[in-house]
Write a structure and sequence with these properties.
By secondary structure, the chain is α/β, with parallel strands linked by helices. An eight-stranded parallel sheet has the order 1-8-7-6-5-4-3-2. Strand 6, helix 8 and strand 7 form a beta-alpha-beta unit.
Length: 310
């Protein structure tokens, strides 16, 4: 299989290592109209771990009425092969979801917040301020259980209903999540409208507010083809955790203009070429995406998968 020529960045601005937070099994599959069998999901997760991932977001405890694709969360978690040093976070939206997470022995969870009023109403049926009341009991119980909690912040770079989003508002909401007890904040470009300068401005606004880049991750969608460019800027600013979805699967069920996530293969190809270590094997990822595309009945949207598996 062809590999990129390795020429490290001569400026020294990039980190030596990047951790990929793999979201394919949860964020990647949640929008699929046809339900993927639990056995296929567990095999998907096992293959991702075998490819070298150390973080694989496995599923979600959102009510099955809202995301039917993930109604089999407990079955999937029971079926995956556990491995030392590998985390399998799950999305937990509320106190009932927390009950299920505890029952399943989950150790890493994530909560999903909005940076805007409109999306908070659409996605959570809560206002921008009142959404925190939903997270507070989850965070308190997580601390009691010794769980690590990640905070997702959506619509950071633009909202399809509100339009532009003030970076100051993003920082205010993001710091609330961190103050509640989130160990990490993932900044989501939910509709894929971010550009490089915008990403740099938002990250510097967090830095100016005293939030270190060691607590920030980025989650880009590739609607306008900007995800890789935005990722490079984030790495230059000191971010070392990047969300990606194998095969470029995914979107958001509550934002129609949200197209697929940044493809993990595209990210790994770029980072391999820059000499940035991820620990993830590109050939194994391409094989996995091709395998999953067969189950979904359509080719992978990842350009690297198409180039290497074509």
């Amino acid at each position: 299989m062809r590999r990129p020529q390795v020429l490290p960045d001569p400026t020294g601005a990039l980190p030596d290592r990047v951790t990929i937070w793999e979201v394919g099994p949860r964020d990647g599959l949640q929008n699929e109209a046809t339900v993927v069998p639990a056995a296929v999901k567990t095999a998907f997760i096992d293959r991702l771990v075998a490819a070298g991932h150390t973080i694989v977001e496995a599923t979600s405890f959102v009510h099955p009425k809202w995301v039917p694709q993930l109604a089999d969360a407990a079955e999937v978690l029971a079926g995956i092969t556990r491995a030392d040093g590998v985390a399998f976070p799950v999305l937990v939206p509320n106190d009932r979801g927390m009950d299920r997470a505890i029952e399943c022995g989950v150790t890493d969870i994530a909560v999903f917040a909005s940076a805007t009023e409109a999306f908070a109403q659409k996605n959570l049926n809560r206002g921008l301020e009142s959404q925190f009341a939903m997270f507070e009991p989850v965070m308190a119980r997580a601390q009691e259980e010794g769980m690590r909690v990640r905070g997702y912040l959506s619509m950071v770079f633009g909202d399809q209903w509100e339009g532009d989003v003030d970076p100051a508002q993003v920082v205010t909401v993001g710091r609330r999540l961190l103050d509640l007890g989130c160990h990490q904040l993932s900044l989501g470009d939910t509709i894929g409208v971010a550009t490089a300068g915008h990403v740099r401005a938002v990250l510097r606004a967090f830095a100016d507010a005293g939030v270190g880049m060691d607590r920030i991750a980025v989650h880009f969608h590739d609607t306008y083809g900007q995800a890789l460019a935005n990722t490079v800027v984030a790495l230059e600013e000191g971010v070392t955790v990047v969300d990606a979805s194998t095969g470029g699967l995914g979107g958001c069920p509550y934002a129609e203009s949200a197209t697929g996530n940044l493809a993990t293969e595209d990210l790994v190809w770029m980072l391999d070429g820059l000499g940035v270590h991820t620990g993830v094997d590109l050939a194994a990822l391409v094989d996995t995406s091709t395998w999953m595309a067969g189950h979904l009945g359509r080719p992978s949207p990842s350009r690297v998968v198409r180039a290497l598996a074509g």
